[in-house]
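I have been asked to look over a protein record a colleague put together. This is what I was given:
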Amino acid sequence: MRKILSLSFSPTMADEIKKETEKNGYMSQSEFFRDIYRQWKENSFIPYLEEVPKKEITKEMRKKIEQTKKLKRSELFNI
């Protein structure tokens, strides 16, 4: 069962969210925010990995970290 969260935005922000939701083919604004949340969770591991001793991080992991660091905010959130 899902828990309902209520968010409040300025009219300008609400308009931008609506446009981005439609532009990116989301079925609803809820789907838009769930996607942003999932992408944030996927990328939230980066600070943790930077604390791990380098010898424990594989070359592949290091490459992914560097690629993610180079992404623009709009690329991270597909907006």
